[in-house]
Amino acid sequence: MSAPITIVGNLVADPELKFTQNAKALATFTVVSSKSSKNADGTWENTDTTFWDIKAWGKTAENVADALRKGVSVVVSGTAVQESWEDKNTGAKRSKITVTAWSVGADLKRHSYHVPVSERSDASFNPPSPVSEPDPWSVPLSDIAPF
Asked: Which end of the chain, N or C, is less packed with Cβ atoms under 10 Å?
């Protein structure tokens, strides 16, 4: 069973990029999230700290490994999945919840980031002309209908 989830937190370490036997990219990384509260003496305290194991696949994995580093604040949207396995040494059944990321980005509340825009290579593409709208401050009040 899986559930949609969004996590906001910081990368604990640089993402690790690996490739499957079929050459599909897989990035794994951990995000720590917590709740900050101000104490009576004015100091801040982090509570409810949770470490999330994240997996990103394909182009998302490659972009994560290329762009993000330890300490960066991120927003991760994805699916929470419970993984189960048997411990090789003890034979005990184990499980944990991981997040399969659909989308990962820098948290712009904490970071300034400029997304590079690539030029379109299709020479036949003609973007639409901007629509000219009247300046709302230049319309006389007598032309505005009452509510």
From this structure: C
